[in-house]
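User: Could you write out the 3D structure of this protein bound to zinc ion? I've included everything you need below.
Assistant: Certainly. Input first, then the structure.
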Amino acid sequence: MKKWLLAFIVPALIVGCSVNPVTGKNELSIVSPQQEIAIGEKNYRPSRQSQGGDYYLDPSLQTYIASVGQRLAAVSDRPDLPYEFVVLNNDVPNAWAMPGGKIAINRGLLLLLEDEAQLAAVLGHEIVHAAARHGASQMTRGTLANIGLVTLGVATQGKEGAQLYGMASQVGAAAWMAKYGRDDELESDHYGMNYMAKAGYDVQGAVELQEKFVELSQSRQAGFLDNLFASHPPSTQRVTENRARVASFSKGERYRERYQKAIAQLKKDAPAYQAETAAKKALAEKQGREAIKHLDKAVAHQPDEGHFWELRGHAWKMLEEHENAQKAYTTAIKKNDKFFSPYLARGVLLYERGQRTAAERDLRRSYELLPTPTASYYLGELSLQGKQYDQANSYFKLAAQSGGELGVQSRQKLQALQLQMQPQTFLTVTPAVSRSGYLLVKVANTSPRAMDRIIVEVSGGGASKTIRLPAVLKANSTVSINTGIAYMAEAQLNYRVRALKAVLLD
Ligand SMILES: [Zn+2]
């Protein structure tokens, strides 16, 4: 997966020595605790957006997960961190922690767990990543590429693909992925169990969690779970280590019933999400009608899931039923107006249908929620059409960082913009000496457009002179101008010449 947007920059390289709040060990760090918190605050929202958005169909599930998280955070070694816990609307069984205690768990993982003790094992583990400053130490070790990089949007998708399959729930792998080292994982398991015990949970839950992960990694589903295994590599070592410690703790609570009650809605909706998975597969195979059939099922089961409606929009668009596509995107936005993706899809569709004002409104909203390259590209186009060249330039610059067709097109637009804004940079100017001993400037127009009012500057010997070319310079042509400066010794040609200004002609 391409990583193409560095959402934060470590402000200054200040290396300090500090005591790790969890392990008590002395360690070097280039990131202060304040910076960690700032990194988490800045990246939490966009990361959630790029991974399906927050799960909103059952707000009581969010409350429940947060309460379990806060219960563990309160007994952690850094109870003062601004912890937050959210459930993401994402199938992939994954969880992650950002520096500063910003934690997320996917609904796909919640479905695999059986009770609150297992959930506490996940959240306790993630709390240790934050509390023990694993992110900060990754950065200090220089593996910045793996942490703090938030890849916003859909890097692998081209201009068309982004609209058709640009469901954020599918881009999990391109988003936040903190690859902690093996030692960090073992440390998180170890202290996570301590937190579980302190909060009154049965630490056996941590053993079962690792057993589940090992089992999953061996199952035929493994490919689908690469994301999870990349960020939390399962291993029998982790199972063994957790198992060995269980006996040293007193027996705690499991809270199976209240966990099952909390995920009841998820369980009820599981068939709808399965139909969604089938629809995505059909879309990827360009089977629009087939996709709609699956989505009909999904929507009949759970009409309030915005993702289903957005996918319906993609399917209708694939079938070139634009009116239906627009309606479906609108429904998706109505179901969840805090998610970037349906705004982006509708914005692009409106743009293609020539409704620029409405398109711009959607694209801007989408961009505010998550600045994707696709939104940038279309906002760039709109700025260009409105002759807002500086603005267009910054949008295309952002879009140009993405891969694929969109990146190529953005770079072409940037070139065109540069020609528009600074045509003189497309002129090559070189000095020469005429036979009669005068200084000449040779001006070549390398652009595909004619230029007029070209001004070049000649400087040397402590003086400078500007010269305006007397005529239009055609595209891909060269002209020689006599500067009137007597210059006998060609061998000592030390004048500098450059193009100052030019105006494009159509
Ligand atoms: Zn981990």
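The mean pLDDT is 86.
User: Perfect, thank you.
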